[in-house]
Design a protein that fits this description.
Chain lengths: 372, 316, 274, 233, 331
């Protein structure tokens, strides 16, 4: 019985510590992404990026003199958890905007809840479907997968003249979706897709698959997957002597990609990204340095995205006439911001009209921007 | 086509050796404890992290020749992970022995979460590059291509398996383990300190898991906190396939699962005229497992326990 | 209804447990199978009940061949049994231990094809059975909490509650003291009925001799002798099987005596009864 | 050598021993006889630490051993050759012997093994075969041989004749006598009461978890009441 | 009638009243808490269903979530724009339960002869096969994209729109499921299951086909899982393979073990603890899972038999109420 009592007391203490006080005139913004579990790496990087921007704001007196309190909650990349988080934000009238969620599958059921409580929402998830569901409370600064899949397809067909591609994707919303977009554009550009192969999101051994792809003898391999799968695939591809042009999406745009593949093998790989190179502008250089100083590590895969999303949200709050959800929501679709990712403005669906996309090639162990 | 087949066989052997090593840990623990040690995948994950920590520490301290540093770090990783296994058995499983089989299994699940999260919060969730211990050089083998790393893995895997087999069959400690896995009561009557045999198993199993982890990280060039989950489940499948509790069964199961996966990927689309894509590889692997169990209900090398040999009360 | 074993053999690997055994049992009698340990008595019971497969030969109940049938079918056809070691459902009450026997007659008859009994009918039978076996006072006690002797009786009750025509009792007196054994013997004798054959495997000779109509003596899986208790008692081969031959014993005796010659041992100490 | 006083024991809530007293002296063969299920095996298991003991005292060589784990009791020199032989089926004959060997008791493995092989030549012949491939008699010999590997001072044999042919039974009993001559004290639990009493010095009759009768083997063997109880006469 | 009886009756009444008041008060909580309670209720339904197999029949099923998925996708396919089929919620509820049961029988039929751990791995494999199949069957299920915009559930003309509506629906269903399972547990079927768990061999000797018996447990439990899936689908209005991972199967098993195997009260306790724990731990951010794991191990090591003692079960509570109310002299 004694043990039971200890457990109960511990549980009560834990419950009590959950509530944290907020000062009356603070601006409270929510954020949500997976911070534990298998996708924590990506989620955490996004949260860190946003936190970095709000810290920066608070150093300069916040928004209209009000301090910004950023409250990230973990959704574990689980749709059910996502709805709980959404409801928690909705219930807390202090929260006047949310940045999240990272996964399209988590965002979908949550959209309903956010829209019902009139919560202005900035979404980092990239599935094209999301913005077509007709919710008016949400904007997406990041380019959806259409842009990201189309750009490299155009480049390889038109500039490089490569016409025979093989697609590999990891059967996730993102991977499969983006591979599909690439396929459409590649075929529109006169190319031929000679095979599409699905893998599992956690796979690390692609050698058997690569050996059979070799039989197709493609000159382009497009891979819609996450990290470290992109790196592992390319590494194993080169080890088997498959020389085809490798193209991957934004997740691969990290230094890790090149270290994990090995500079020699990574040479020539193409990667799309929403951002010009970190050393291309003082802002980006500054961002990278600040991130290093604040968290003790280089920006993670989605850190810049998180930063830009925070910029959009902050801009809407800045313009809002009243510091509540309705006030922010009224401005959300109309904001135009010059973010870290470039200028942002939204169409009636909440999609970024000017979402930029950059194509990089690995050269001498570094990503180099391809001038278009 | 022969080249292609041979090439795939090489891949199957390399990944099979890794599966087999991890499966050994499951099977040995299951043998003496009848416990599905869900935390086993995490020992696999800890291997390369501890190795990296030790290796860079050694190098930082001035170090010896890189080969020596590496060797010391490998052996030390085995020992550290092994001791961790012993400690976890002592504190998280042993108190639950009298409570049937579900409670320790749950505890193992909890330990798995704890270990994985602990690594994630200390070193971060991101995958980290793991420099190859042996430089990867391709070698031409009868039309197929094999890299030195693959050869190294196969050699190390087979070496460890042979070593374990010799240990378990030829030494007194090994006999203790086998005796304990057959019957705790009889073993204790013979004066065998069963708890020590259990500790020994919890030293060797996780140690081998750590070795597999180092081989794996070295093969693929990365390590990350979640790397143990999926492969742990697969190795467990391999152990069941071979007949859980059977040491040769675990090795066979490992190689077989490697082969099923590789050949599933390589030939499923061809054989099904493209209707079944490579994404069905795991379905195929699981289907093979279920089929095997329907015909050999105790796995390939497991002992068929019928009502006639033991009239066992309560399955768990 | 008669149960018959026709040329039945059972091999465990290379070990031959039962060799070409033919026996038949008719309703209305109590039969005992005796023999030294390892003679194959329990094997016979386990084969009849379907726990063991039969290597060769046939076991028939009436016209139905039992071997090859799954165990539960054999039970449904009217063969019930007890076990050498107590195998009650310890976590269930005494009443529940009996109730569960009527599962095939419950609303699930569509699965078993048995005659359906209502819950009230089932309970009535169970209570009557409890009364018959003097267990009514412990109906709601967990079986595992009963003293050993009453657990044995409960196991007996479980074998009889469904009124099976063939009842196999595997050492019902094992572990009971003399009084309990006597009571058990009287109880089993009282269960003899025209429509029931009771087949008993037992070591306690008092019990076997007092209640059996026929005794079958097994030795090394073969029938050594079969007949009334008086016949079996006087049979020399039975004596031998239980005691070993006198010549063989002599050798041991000599050895033992040579050892005892060293002295200081208590071989001739007096008997103390506690 | 071994003293048991007022032993009460059982399995969980089921008590099976209700007061057992035993006294085994050095060099003796003591037999425990009684009906099937009377508590003979449970008595041995309690002494070895396998059964939960409710109350009572057990002393071996003047040292209380109640509550010690089985392996430590064996290591003190009290070996238990269990009922049904409990051969480790997946091990070979020699591995079974190795499993039974306890280092640090003064004699090397090779030494005892040679002795066991001398006693049971069939074991030497089949040393590399799997134990499960052995016949019942051979398994019994292996079980005894394996118990000897622990260099016991007191050896408890539970039903060594169970399921064996008379010829083999005689061999086993001869071995028991030989062991005794070599200085090992023995407790023999037997169904085969007649033979057990022939070779034993002292006998305990256990009935429903209690010692009902004890006495010199010769007297027990010739007691008309007991004879009737065990031979059905 | 003595004073003490009256006092105890009042005490009991107070406890019961408190329970009722708590249940009635839930809708007045902020929606987040209602949603958490809804989650708890769904997991109670699932765990009570799985408990039939694990707790009563003694079979370890690690792929239970497959049936949940079958139910959820039944709703997604039959009540959404996916194929423009819009069946009423209540109809799909039964279809989902039936589909779950059929899946249960399909799985159970060949594999129930396997022993404990082998059964566990086969059910695990089955769960994964179902998930991967859903993930890959793009034409039918949209693959990893999932199916969005499922119909709002509609109960006899009353649309279920808010977490509170679902709370009442779930509460009623939970009571029905618990009562049904409790009744079954006390029926001869439940007794046969308990006997099966104790000694399968003897059960066969009583003329009971143990495979059928296990199959029944499997089918019933899968039906409850399927029904739970339908509710989940209608509640979430979005289904995707991510909701049906092996981890979810483990979670349901954990709920059963941590609460107390084979005990409905225990299952309820387990669901409450394991659903609330991660919510409480939100403050810990990235340390959440670590603390969760530590708590899990600590609880199991301190109380290996489960949080709720097997004696404290539904039958015990009912008996207590009955004896205190109907025949107070007995206590």
């Amino acid at each position: 019985m004694n043990r039971t009592r200890i457990l109960l007391t511990a549980a009560a203490l834990l419950f009590a510590s959950g509530a944290m006080p907020v000062l009356a005139d603070d601006i409270v913004l929510g954020g949500s992404a997976p911070m534990s579990g298998a996708q924590a790496e990506f989620g955490q990087s996004q949260i860190d990026g946003a936190q970095l921007y709000f810290d920066q704001l608070n150093e300069k007196d916040g928004i209209k003199g009000n301090k910004v309190v950023f409250r990230p909650l973990d959704d574990r990349a689980d749709p059910r958890q996502g709805t709980l988080v959404a409801q928690q934000f909705c219930d807390d009238s202090a929260v006047i905007g949310v940045i999240g969620h990272m996964n399209s599958g988590v965002t979908m059921p949550a959209l309903d809840i956010y829209s019902e409580c009139g919560m202005p929402q900035v979404v980092p998830a990239t599935n094209p479907e999301l913005m077509r569901m007709g919710f008016k409370t949400v904007v997406r600064p990041v380019a959806n997968d259409f842009v990201q899949g189309a750009l490299p397809a155009k480049y390889v067909t038109e500039k490089l003249g490569l016409k025979n591609a093989v697609l590999v994707h990891d059967k996730t919303v993102f991977g499969q979706g983006i591979a599909g977009v690439f396929k459409d554009n590649f075929e529109a550009g006169g190319g031929k897709v000679s095979g599409t192969y699905g893998t599992n999101p956690e796979d690390v051994d692609f050698s058997a698959l690569i050996a059979s792809i070799k039989l197709e003898n493609p000159d382009v391999v497009y891979m819609g997957a996450g990290m470290p799968q992109l790196a592992l695939f390319l590494k194993q591809m080169r080890e088997q002597g498959l020389k085809a042009q490798f193209i991957g999406p934004d997740i691969g745009f990290t230094v890790d990609f090149i270290t994990q593949v090995g500079a020699a093998s990574a040479e020539g790989a193409l990667m799309t990204f929403q951002l010009p190179p970190y050393d291309s502008s003082p802002e980006l250089k500054d961002f990278s340095d600040r991130h290093q100083a604040r968290f003790g590590r280089a920006p993670g895969p989605y850190a810049s995205l998180g930063f830009a999303n925070a910029q959009v949200m902050a801009a809407a709050v800045e313009k809002a006439e009243s510091l509540d959800r309705a006030g922010v929501l009224a401005q959300l679709h109309g904001v135009t911001v010059d973010t870290l990712l470039g200028p942002v403005a939204f169409d009636e669906n909440g999609e970024n009209t000017t979402a930029p996309m950059y194509l990089y090639v690995v050269k001498d162990g570094k990503f180099e921007l391809i001038k278009q | 086509m022969f080249d292609y087949f041979l090439q795939q066989l090489i891949f199957a052997l390399a990944i099979g050796a890794i599966y087999g090593l991890i499966a050994l840990g499951y099977t040995m623990v299951y043998g003496v404890m009848r416990l599905i040690n869900f935390a086993h995948g995490e020992f696999f994950m800890l291997g390369p992290y501890i190795y990296t920590f030790l290796f860079s520490g050694l190098v930082g301290l001035g170090g010896l020749a890189p080969v020596l540093d590496s060797a010391i770090a490998i052996v030390a990783s085995f020992v550290i992970v092994g001791l961790l296994g012993v400690a976890i058995e002592r504190f998280a499983y042993r108190p639950l022995r009298a409570y049937g089989r579900l409670a320790p299994m749950l505890s193992a699940l909890g330990m798995s979460i704890v270990l994985q999260s602990a690594v994630r919060v200390t070193v971060g969730p991101q995958p980290v590059h793991f420099p190859a211990i042996v430089p990867s050089t391709p070698i031409d083998a009868l039309g197929g291509m094999v890299t030195t790393v693959q050869l190294g893995i196969l050699a190390a895997g087979v070496l460890l398996m042979v070593g374990l087999t010799l240990f378990v069959n030829g030494t007194r400690l090994g006999i203790w383990i086998r005796a304990a896995s057959e019957s705790w009561t009889t073993s204790s009557l013979l004066g065998i300190r069963v708890n020590r045999a259990v500790s020994l198993v919890f030293f060797i199993g996780p140690g081998l898991g750590a070795m597999a982890g180092i081989m794996y990280a070295s093969y693929y060039g990365i390590m990350q906190p979640t790397m143990g989950s999926v492969i742990g489940l697969k190795a467990f499948t391999a152990a069941i396939l071979g007949g859980i509790g059977s040491i040769p069964g675990a090795m066979l199961g490992g190689f077989l699962l490697g082969a099923i996966e590789v050949f599933g990927t390589a030939f499923l689309p061809i054989l099904s005229f493209g209707y079944i894509g490579t994404e069905y590889r795991d379905v195929f692997a699981f289907a093979v497992l279920i089929l095997v169990l329907l015909f050999k209900p105790a796995g390939l090398l497991g002992e068929t326990v019928s009502e006639e040999t033991t009239v066992a009360k309560k399955d768990y | 209804m008669a149960l018959a074993l026709e040329n039945v053999s059972k091999h465990f690997g290379s070990l031959v447990a039962i060799r070409n055994l033919s026996l038949s049992f008719d309703v209305g009698s109590i039969y005992s199978i005796i023999g030294p340990n390892g003679a194959g008595k329990s094997t016979v019971v386990n084969m009849i009940a379907g726990s063991y497969s039969v290597t060769s030969g046939t076991i028939r109940l009436g016209a139905t061949a039992l071997n090859r049938l799954p165990k539960h079918r054999i039970a449904q056809l009217g063969v019930s049994r007890t076990y050498q070691n107590l195998r009650l459902f310890d976590g269930m009450t005494v009443l529940e231990n009996l109730e569960v026997c009527f599962f095939p007659q419950s609303w699930l008859t569509f699965l078993t094809g048995a005659k359906r009994l209502s819950k009230a009918e089932r309970l009535e039978i169970c209570h009557a059975c409890l009364a018959e076996f003097h267990l009514s006072d412990v109906a709601d006690v967990l079986a595992g909490d009963l003293p050993y002797g009453r657990q044995k009786i409960l196991e007996l009750a479980r074998a009889f509650v469904t009124q099976a025509p063939i009842v196999l009792l595997d050492e019902p007196a094992a572990g009971l003291n003399h009084t309990e054994t006597k009571d058990m013997a009287a109880m089993i004798a009282g269960l003899k009925r025209e429509d029931r054959a009771i087949i008993l495997v037992e070591h306690d000779m008092d019990m076997v001799m007092s209640i059996s109509d026929r005794i079958d003596v097994l030795n090394y899986g073969e029938l050594l002798c079969s007949g009334t208790p008086d016949l079996v008692r006087t049979n020399e081969r039975v004596q031998e099987a239980y005691l070993g031959t006198t010549e063989e014993l002599d050798d041991i005796r000599k050895l033992a005596q040579s050892r005892r010659a060293q002295g200081g041992l208590r071989a001739n100490a007096g008997i103390v009864r506690h | 050598m071994l003293k048991v006083a007022g032993l009460k024991a059982g399995y969980g809530r089921t008590q099976v021993l209700f007061g057992i007293d035993l006294d085994v002296r050095a060099g003796e063969i003591v037999t425990i006889i009684g009906a099937n299920g009377a508590g003979k095996t449970s008595t041995l298991r309690s002494i070895s630490g396998l059964t939960q003991i409710y109350s009572g005292e057990i002393e071996f060589k003047g040292r209380p051993i109640k509550g010690l784990p089985p392996e430590e009791i064996t290591r003190l020199g009290l070996a238990h050759c269990p009922e049904g032989r409990q051969i480790l089926q997946r091990l070979t004959v020699e591995e079974n012997l190795l499993a039974g060997y306890i280092p640090g008791r003064g004699r090397s493995f090779d030494e005892i093994r040679t002795q066991v092989y001398d006693m049971f030549p069939i074991l030497k012949e089949r040393r590399h075969s799997l134990a499960s491939r052995m016949s019942g008699g051979q398994q019994q010999m292996l079980a005894i041989g394996r118990s000897l590997m622990a260099t016991p001072e007191l050896l408890m044999l539970d039903e060594p004749s169970l399921g064996l042919a008379p010829k083999i039974i005689n061999q086993i009993f001869e071995i028991i006598i030989t062991l005794s001559k070599s200085g090992i004290s023995l407790i023999v639990v037997e169904q085969n009461a007649a033979v057990a009493l022939e070779i034993a010095d002292y006998a305990y009759v256990i009935d429903a978890g209690r010692c009902s009768v004890e006495g010199g083997a010769n007297n027990v063997l010739n007691d008309p009441d007991l004879k009737a109880a065990y031979l059905g006469a | 009638m003595g004073n003490s009886v009256i006092a105890r009756r009042l005490g009991l009444l107070a406890v019961l009243a408190l329970c009722v008041v708590l249940l009635v008060l839930v809708p007045y909580l902020p929606s987040y808490y209602v949603r958490v309670v809804d989650s708890i209720l769904i997991y109670i339904i699932l765990a009570v269903g799985l408990n039939l197999v694990v707790g009563y029949a003694g079979l370890l099923d690690l792929g239970f979530i497959a049936f949940y998925a079958v139910g959820a996708y039944a709703y997604a396919l039959l009540a959404s724009g996916q194929f423009d089929i819009h069946l009423p919620f209540i109809v799909v509820l039964f279809i989902g339960a039936a589909a779950g049961a059929i899946a249960g029988v399909l799985l159970g039929f060949p594999v129930l002869k396997l022993r404990g751990d082998y059964l566990a791995i086969v059910t695990l494999s089955f769960g994964e096969i179902i998930r991967i199949a859903i993930n890959n069957a793009d034409e039918l299920t949209n693959g990893p994209q999932g199916i969005a915009g499922l119909d709002r559930a509609n109960l006899f003309g009353l649309p279920l729109t808010s977490p509170v509506h679902f709370y009442w629906l779930l509460l009623v269903l939970t009571v029905i499921v618990c009562a049904g399972v409790y009744y079954m547990e006390r029926s001869i079927l439940g007794k046969a299951w308990r006997a099966l768990r104790e000694d399968q061999d003897v059960v066969r000797g009583l003329g009971i086909n143990t495979t059928t018996l296990k199959l029944l447990a499997f089918a019933l439990s899968a039906a409850i899982g399927g029904a739970g899936g339908v509710i989940f689908g209608s509640f979430q209005r979005f289904v995707s393979p991510e909701s049906f991972t092996f981890q979810e199967s483990l979670l349901v098993v954990l709920i059963i073990i941590i609460g107390g195997v084979g005990n409905i009260v225990g299952v309820i306790a387990g669901a409450v603890v394991l659903v609330i724990l991660p919510e409480v731990l939100h403050f810990a951010a990235q340390y959440r899972l670590l603390i969760y794991g530590v708590v899990l191990v600590t609880v199991i090591v301190l109380r290996p038999g489960g949080l709720v003692s097997p004696r404290f079960n539904l039958g015990f509570i009912i008996r207590k109420v009955r004896t205190l109310w109907l025949s107070p002299s007995k206590t």
